[in-house]
Write a structure and sequence with these properties.
The complex is a heterodimer of chains A (about 550) and B (about 475). With about 550 residues, chain A is mainly alpha-helical. Chain A contains 17 helices and 1 strand. In chain B, about 5% of the residues lie in helices and about 45% in strands. Chain B has a 6-stranded mixed beta sheet. In chain B, strands 1, 2, 39, 40 and 41 form a 5-stranded antiparallel beta sheet that branches. Chain B has about 475 residues and is mostly beta strands. In chain B, β3 (about 15) and β4 form a beta hairpin. The chains are: A mainly alpha (about 550), B mainly beta (about 475). The interface of A and B includes residues 216, 222, 229, 246 and 247 of A.
Chain lengths: ~550, ~475
């Protein structure tokens, strides 16, 4: 498509445009003239005369001439009359006018062809665009339908969603309701239970009164003799004293339990402290070289270091024996700091390790590139050799297997054979290598030759261009001569019929085959015109084939799409 | 491992004496006391009715036999066989009876929980505790026997009374913030009392001996709550099994939850060992089959053996969906027990009745799952070492120790369906109880350890390695 659009109409000079306007009336005539020429390659003078007689006869020659003069002067040509002699015809001026008219005619022809081509191209373009338009329209329809479908679905989903929301809400309401019911029932149940229990208690009370009255002799213990207490003591009376003692006992029990627990905790604490101390020591022993840096780096370094010193002192003074509360903050701070340092240290180490790792990797990469290839080559060679060895060995083995008679002589022979074979193979190998080298050389020379050839071709192309230019120039001069002969047909176009119009199309479409016909006389101007068009279009874009086959062009365009 | 012959039994009533010398068992209205080592009958007492409950006094000198139907308690002395004591609760009735820790008092709960009568064997004195609450675990003694906690209910409110056992003096009396107190249990150290609410509400309250509320723990609301609890022997942990099939473990410092043990039907963790009990009829080699078959071979053909295989995880356990519209659904953690060394916790999820879960308390992780063929009826830890005995209502007893696990067939003819078991305090023997019989199982110390550790466990550990 882009190419189509970038094709520029061959530039027409302003004056030629003007002329174009003048001659626009006879636009259709030149191709008809051409066709005329085709049909009548050599019009007889008679017929020509008869043809012209319509305009100019013996009687009205004067009027004709004056008319022509008038017309020409209006067209801006110099008068065909000699100025000095009044009615005398100026032949030179006439011829000049004629020549100019012919040139104009040519130009117009060319312009027309281009316009036609343009028209054709545009027509194709139009078709293509229409096709595109139709397709897009279809697509649009489709999309619209799709959109409608999707909208419908969306609507459905939304409605479904709404329904689900409604359902959810209902369910939630239901849950709420059920919860309310449950709680109300629970309260009701509890209330009833309480009521029933009260009744039950009343009944129990009554039963108690009834059953436990002293009259019931049955409730009794028959015992042979009372036994002594397990501890051998006698039962004591319940007094305030015993009560107090019981309380005391209870608290003693509790106290002992708490004491025990405290002891356990103390032991645990001591162990933890020990672990902490050990860890701290280890961290410190790990860190000494690192200590300076973080202190320098961190802003709160001095404060912390002070603290640390304090703690260090405390440490010496057996801070571990102090209760945690007094030194807790310092302890946690110092531990945290040391931990941070350790973390930094570890991270740094990690970084270093990774860096070193990367570095080694890089170095390796840099060094090896060249060595690597050499090495691989060597190894490959070795592999090849080994493979061959294996192959030969296999062969030998097979041979051996095939001939089960294992004479010493055969074995020896085989050995010899193997050695020989190997040597031969090695020789072959070296030969092959040499050949390979030679091939390489040849290939290099070939590439050079190809480059040279390319350069030469370029020079040749330039030459050819120059030659073509020359040729054209020479042809254009020739053309001028030939136009002198065929010019009458230009007038013929003004009165061309519709039938000719149809012919225009055909000619434009079938120009190339016609050109190749190369009709001796009239084909010449046509050919020159084609040269020109080709030249001009060639400068704009190289589409000579497209000119002749627009349909194909569209197709290729489609493909390009 | 040796087994005694089967002895007749009624009401699952066979108990080792606390000193470990005697074994008391009941046969309808007869109380038989045997020597543990020889199983010879030492004493034989005849009660007035079918015995429904027996209990040894703490000094192993007396045995209490309760006949709830008649409202009578009879006490027998081992030292003086002709000494007798009969306590009649008369028309008040009797629903529960127990020894006080000193072994000289008997606490009888009358019908309708009207009161608790404290009868003394030393004096004529009788004490009453009014308003006891009718709940699963309404009386709790501290391990040292000094204090007793009693759940009470007055004016539709729950209370706890703490008594000094030596003179039954009320030490503390306080109300609890419970809807319907369900149970109370002292920590082994005797300083903390755990009290939990009815299953309608998940609520665990922890009280100090002096009646202060130490902490309250609520894991969730609305759904069914606590089903069972267990203190660790060190009093460090309180394991709470609930209806949501989880065990939550609280610590004794903050009384906050340390961890949560779930009991899913699928075990996916590769660290967990799943022992699956498989039943195998003995393989018969056709070459060895003779005609007519020998008697031994014939009998062996019809008996099945069981052993443990190690299942490859993930394992799906048999899961029973509880019926939602029934009360007391069979779901949640119904049994849980700490090993005596605090290292392991055994649990049973009632939804998965065939499995026993053993948790490592040090790592707080599931260690082992025993997948049985039948429903687990009961399990109990060896009081001396981490060794768990399990019974599943058949004639086998199963033992697990960290080294592995074994299934042991109780020899003997006839049906012997073990539904309960109880360890001797030395850990050398245990009594296996069925509905009508009991037998004593002796675990020779060296032998059992070796056999449990070697014969069956060798393959299990190697299997784990593979």
């Amino acid at each position: 498509m882009g190419d189509w659009k970038t094709i520029t109409v061959p530039v027409l000079s302003s004056d030629s445009k003007n002329i174009f306007q003048y001659t626009s009336e006879k636009k259709i005539s030149p191709p008809s003239m051409n066709s005329q020429v085709l049909r009548l390659p050599l019009p007889s003078s008679k017929s020509m005369h008869s043809f012209f007689s319509a305009f100019c006869t013996e009687e009205n020659i004067e009027q004709s001439i004056s008319y022509l003069n008038r017309e020409l002067t209006t067209l801006g040509f110099p008068s065909i009359y000699t100025e000095s002699k009044g009615k005398e015809l100026n032949l030179i001026s006439i011829i000049n006018c004629m020549n100019e008219l012919l040139a104009l005619q040519h130009k117009n022809l060319r312009a027309q062809e281009e316009v036609e081509m343009q028209h054709l191209k545009l027509g194709c373009d139009m078709d293509h665009l229409q096709n595109c338009y139709a397709k897009l329209k279809e697509q649009l329809e489709l999309s619209k339908r799709e959109i409608v479908g999707l909208q419908e679905r969306d609507r459905q989903l939304q409605s479904k969603n709404r329904n689900l929301h409604q359902l959810l809400k209902n369910e939630k309401d239901e849950v709420q309701k059920l919860q309310n019911i449950i709680s109300s029932r629970a309260t009701q149940y509890n209330h009833d239970m309480k009521r029933k229990e009260r009744e039950y208690n009343k009944l129990k009370e009554r039963l108690h009164q009834l059953v436990m009255n002293k009259k019931d002799k049955k409730i009794a213990m028959e015992v042979l003799n009372y036994v002594g207490r397990a501890d051998g003591k006698r039962g004591a009376w319940r007094t305030d004293k015993t009560e107090a003692r019981n309380e005391e006992e209870m608290y003693k029990v509790l106290l002992s339990d708490y004491e025990q627990r405290q002891k356990q905790l103390l032991v645990e604490n001591a162990e933890l402290k020990k672990v902490l101390q050990q860890m701290k020591k280890e961290i410190i022993s790990l860190l000494p070289p690192q200590k300076q840096k973080p202190r320098e780096r961190s802003e709160d370094g001095p404060v912390l270091s002070d603290l640390e010193e304090d703690i260090g002192e405390l440490n010496k003074e057996n801070m571990w024996e102090l209760s945690c509360e007094t030194v807790r903050e310092q302890l946690t701070n110092s531990i945290r700091k040391q931990w941070r340092m350790l973390k930094n240290h570890v991270e740094k180490l990690d970084n270093q390790v990774s860096r070193v790792h990367l570095g080694t990797l890089n170095e390796k990469d840099v060094i090896s590139r060249e060595d690597h290839e050499l090495e691989t080559e060597k190894l490959e060679l070795e592999i090849q050799q080994c493979k061959e060895m294996i192959k030969t060995q296999q062969q030998l083995l097979q041979q051996q297997l095939m001939s089960p008679c294992d004479d010493d002589t055969t074995l020896l022979l085989q050995d010899c054979y193997l050695l020989e074979e190997r040597e031969r193979l090695q020789e072959e190998w070296t030969l092959f290598r040499e050949q390979k080298k030679n091939f390489e050389k040849e290939r290099r020379s070939f590439t050079e030759a190809a480059i040279r050839l390319g350069l030469e071709r370029k020079a040749f192309e330039e030459d050819r261009g120059a030659w073509l230019k020359q040729q054209f120039l020479s042809i254009s001069t020739d053309c001028k001569h030939s136009e002198n002969v065929t010019s009458p047909s230009a007038f013929l176009g003004s009165k061309c019929s519709d039938q000719d119009n149809r012919l225009v199309k055909s000619t434009s479409q079938q120009r190339r085959p016609r050109c190749t016909l190369s009709v001796p006389v009239s084909a010449e101007p046509c050919q020159t015109s084609q040269y020109i068009t080709r030249h001009s279009s060639g400068t704009a874009s190289k589409k000579p084939a497209g000119d002749s086959k627009p349909n194909q062009w569209v197709e290729s365009d489609k493909e390009a799409e | 491992m040796n087994f005694s012959e089967l002895f007749k039994l009624s009401g699952l009533l066979a108990r080792f004496s606390p000193d470990g010398k005697c074994l008391a068992s009941c046969m309808q209205y007869r109380l038989v006391v045997r020597d543990v080592s020889t199983l010879q009958i030492l004493q034989l007492y005849t009660c007035l009715d079918h015995i429904q409950y027996i209990e040894w006094s703490s000094d192993s000198l007396f045995v209490l036999c309760a006949m709830y139907k008649r409202g009578i308690v009879q006490v027998w002395s081992l030292e003086q066989p002709d000494w007798h004591c009969k306590i009649d609760e008369g028309s008040a009735g009797l629903v529960a009876s127990c020894w006080s820790p000193d072994g000289r008092h008997i606490l009888n709960t009358t019908e309708f929980h009207l009161r608790i009568t404290v009868w003394s064997l030393c004096t004529k004195s009788v004490s009453y505790i009014k308003y006891p609450k009718a709940c699963q675990q309404g009386i709790a003694f501290t391990k040292d026997g000094r204090y007793m906690a009693v759940a009470e209910r007055r004016d539709c409110k729950d209370f706890i009374s703490i008594f000094v056992c030596s003179d039954w003096q009320l030490l503390r009396h306080f109300d609890t913030e419970t809807q319907d107190l369900f149970g109370i249990e002292w920590a082994p150290n005797g300083c903390v009392l755990a009290a939990w609410d009815t299953c309608l509400e998940y609520k665990m309250l922890l009280y100090s001996l002096d009646g202060r509320l130490l902490s309250t723990f609520r894991a969730y609301e609305w759904s069914l709550g606590i089903k069972s609890i267990a203190w660790s022997p060190s009093s460090q942990f309180l394991a709470i099994g609930s209806y949501d099939e989880k065990v939550r473990i609280l610590n004794h410092v903050t009384w906050k939850k340390i961890t949560e043990f779930e009991h899913p039907a699928t075990i996916a963790n590769t660290r967990t060992i799943v022992y699956k009990e498989v039943e195998k009829s003995p393989s018969v080699e056709t070459e060895r089959l003779s005609f007519p078959p020998t008697r031994a071979l014939a009998s062996s053909l019809f008996s099945t053996q069981s052993k443990y295989d190690i299942s490859q995880v993930p394992v799906s356990l048999q899961y029973i969906k509880p019926v939602a519209d029934r009360a007391n659904p069979k779901m949640g953690i119904g049994m849980l027990a700490f090993s005596p060394d605090n290292c392991f916790l055994a649990t049973k999820n009632d939804n998965i009745p065939n499995a026993v879960w053993i948790w490592d308390i040090q790592k707080l992780k599931l260690l082992v799952v025993l997948e049985q063929l039948c429903t687990v009826q009961s399990f109990q830890w060896d009081p001396r070492q981490p060794r768990l005995a399990v019974c599943t209502g058949n004639s086998r007893v199963y033992l697990w120790s960290p080294a592995g696990c074994v299934s042991v067939q109780v020899p003997g003819e006839g049906d012997f369906q073990i539904v309960s078991l109880s360890w001797h305090s030395s850990g050398d023997s245990m009594v296996l109880l069925s509905k009508d019989n009991f037998c004593v199982c002796y675990l020779d110390r060296e032998e059992t350890e070796m056999s449990a550790g070697d014969s069956n466990c060798a393959w299990s550990t190697t299997d784990v390695l593979h």
